[in-house]
Amino acid sequence: MKDFANLIERLDTTTKTNQKVAALAEYFKEASEKDKLWTIAILSHRRPSRPVNTTLLREYAAELASIPLWLFEESYHIVGDLAESIALIVPNDQHDSKKELWEILEELIELKFKTEPEKKEYVQDRWMGLDYYSRFVFTKLITGGFRIGISQKLMTKALSQVSGIAEDELAYRLMGDWSPSSTSYEELLFGRNEQAYVSKPYPFYLAYALEDSLEQLGEVKDWSVEHKWDGIRGQVICRKGEVFIWTRGDELVTEKYPELATLKDFLPDGIVIDGELLAFTNGEIGLFSELQTRIGRKTLSKSILSKVPVIFKAYDLLEFQGKDYRKLPYLDRRKHLEKLIEETPHPALHISERFEFSSWDEVIAERELAREKRSEGLMLKRKASTYQVGRKKGDWWKWKIDPLTIDAVLTYAMRGHGRRTNLFTDYTFGLWQEKDNGSKELVTFAKAYSGLTDQEFAQVDAIIKQTTLERFGPVRSVEPTLVFELAFEGISYSSRHKSGIAVRFPRIVRWRKDKKIEDANTLEDLKALIPK
Amino acid sequence: MNRPDLLVFNAKGIYCPIAQVYIDPWKPVNRAIITHGHSDHARFGHKHYLTHHSNIPIIRHRLGQINVEGVEWGEKFQINGVTFSLHPAGHILGSSQVRVEYNGEIWVFTGDYKTEPDGICTPYESVACHTLITECTFGIPAFKWKPQEKVFDEINLWWDKNKKDGKTSVLFAYTLGKAQRILKHVDSSIGPIYTHGAVENMTDVLRPQLALPSTTQITRETINKDLRGALVIAPPSAHGSPWMRKLVPYETGTCSGWMAFRGARARRATDRGFVLSDHCDWQGLLSSIRESGAERVICTHGYTDIFSRYLREIGYQASVENTQYAGEKEETETKESA
Lengths: 532, 338
Ligand SMILES: [Zn+2]
Ligand SMILES: [Zn+2]
Description:
The complex is a heterodimer.
Chain A: H1 2-12, H2 17-30, H3 33-43, H4 54-65, H5 69-79, H6 82-89, H7 101-111, H8 116-129, H9 132-143, H10 152-163, H11 167-173, H12 185-190, H13 194-198, E1 205-209, E2 223-229, E3 232-239, E4 242-247, H14 263-266, E5 271-281, E6 284-285, H15 288-295, H16 302-307, E7 310-320, E8 323-324, H17 330-343, E9 349-351, E10 354-355, H18 360-368, H19 370-373, E11 375-382, E12 390-400, E13 404-415, E14 424-434, E15 440-448, H20 454-466, E16 468-472, E17 475-478, E18 483-488, E19 490-493, E20 501-504, E21 507-511, H21 523-527
Parallel strand pairs in A: 1-12, 7-9
Antiparallel strand pairs in A: 2-10, 2-11, 3-4, 3-5, 5-6, 5-7, 7-8, 11-12, 13-14, 13-17, 13-18, 14-15, 16-17, 18-21, 19-20
Helix pairs in contact in A: 1-2, 1-9, 2-10, 4-5, 5-6, 6-9
Chain B: E1 8-10, E2 13-16, E3 21-23, E4 31-33, E5 48-52, H1 56-63, E6 68-71, E7 77-79, E8 82-88, E9 96-102, E10 105-109, E11 131-136, H2 148-164, E12 168-172, H3 178-185, E13 193-195, H4 197-206, E14 216-217, H5 224-227, E15 231-234, E16 250-255, H6 262-268, E17 272-274, H7 282-292, E18 296-302, H8 304-313, E19 317-320
Parallel strand pairs in B: 3-4, 4-5, 5-6, 10-11, 11-18, 12-15, 12-16, 13-14, 13-15, 16-17, 18-19
Antiparallel strand pairs in B: 1-2, 2-3, 7-8, 8-9, 9-10
The complex binds zinc ion (ZN) (2 copies).
């Protein structure tokens, strides 16, 4: 545990990627096989399921620190991270720092089945026994969400240096359905576990956003164009008579999409298709927000399945007849894919239509149709491109449409986290709505916090402090005086929102000092942006 | 016992109506008692300044030829029948708490303060009072300072390692206070110490009062290769400025209480964060309030709402007053304040 905590500390104390990789490689060189395996698991989001919920953790921490719960909560709000708050606030005597990482993890697996008093005793004892970083790491292992600036890509790079296995190959081996209890370090890296192999997806090839002009891509005839669909990127695998669906987040979600279960009866065995899971309501492509209503559910009722059916829109063919097709040119892979889908029509398997154009102007014109076709923009793929590993430049580009924007009025403000804790940086915005008697009122419709400079934040903060109407804990209502231009990616009707409208990824584009609050947009203006 | 308050907060600062004197006013006034030299406490434009002797060179350097009078620690002086005295606050060189007594009632304004002796300034002394006006910059239990030896061990190790890697170590610290505290305690046998002009000027002002290792100011003539392995002390505003180009290759570090937070360290975008503050941590605040014996506590800059609520829960009569003091600012800024 101490070694792993030291690793996290080293990763924390540098902002340089190559130093992070070096620290990780050094750790992999020294660590025991069991610790290595667990480290790979943790850094690829395979931690054990949460043994204690965070409400209990907060209570345990406040009790141990002899402070009222509200004071712990306020401090947590300021620190912004639960594990870090606990590491900072709870006292310790460092009596046991000798446990190995894997021992702690096995304890945490067991802990899930213990009674509440046993959980409390165990967790508080560990907290007391560990130093700052070990405690932080220990609590992170319980709560998950290890954001330490080490992507799976960097981890793979470090492991590649230690194991001698090429990065792309290693990325592939580390994917799929395994856990430290089902395999060993040796087997994961060097062996072939048949059972794990059957469900194993390929690493996704991801595109960067187009930076330069289209002309700089060369000849338009070298490029294939398709729409970038707004759903969940995934892979459908049919092997040994079974279907597996993986998301880009390396999550196995087969059970969540029963409409795709019958694919095994349609497609030949030994096949892997890259594509997008999309809501498909009333026979047309739905919005991401509709898909979201299905994602979080534990059980899928008949009514939700009929209300929000899902399709898989196929982009690419990665494996065919059990053979890895990733090194074939894109156009060849697509031809196989198109033929396959044409010959074995399945109601939930659609092809993502592909275009070839004779001028860049035609590409621009196609992008104009994106909102109408309910896509996020275009994907440009070089016809000769292989299917690569991870995010790479050169052969694939995404070219999204510009976001939707609206001018809104600031109505509530909340204190920020961390260094911005004394500043009000999280804002709620409203738009005008006309009431029956003809007067206008502001209706809340979105929250946003990014997009201002530090200097602007400070100015807005000062105005908020001067125009506060009411305080509710960290939140203040303010007299409406400020107008901001907000951008967002998607928009749809929603019964869960007061305004009746949900927007996706709202963010502040600029402070419209030139506008008075009367000049801000209305709710009607916002509704007009919803695709018909 | 319904006596009017000895000190009140008005639009210009903390005011004693009976003596007609301000403490650390933020608007120009006739008579100002100044706790310490940081720019949010010692401002320009007052007709008459009164402060501790050792603070005079500092505010003269900052504010020019002002009309200033110096007093000694604990030296009592009367204004309109009100008795005043200054007591060490342990924040930076020459920093004071202000004790105010009238008809047997005692108020103390802490100014900025810390309880841990830093080897630079006269250590903080607890002053008994009825009402304590305290800052609470770090007034939540998430702040717990390590002893400064440990922090300087970390800084020395970091410098030594950078030196071995052939790099320059650049530490960002406030020019007044933190910079001299670092100079005093780093292991100057590791290598030469260079300074940014702003740090050099302020350090020169303080040298007659402190024993500090020698430093060299970085100028146009400084040769890049001489800086390899050296320690450079610069104000936070130098971070990311063209001035840094001369120092390549370098590693950067920030010394601040805010560096206790991982998020703050990450956003600051320096390579290292060292948790070193000239303010009280949570326990420091609580113990000094306890020792003062005060029944009433007024909280100024920092986590005032949270801190005062907690004080009320544990039995104090605690309230909040808004001031224009900045606390220990975490953002990179051109204006110096702490
Ligand atoms: Zn201050
Ligand atoms: Zn100060």
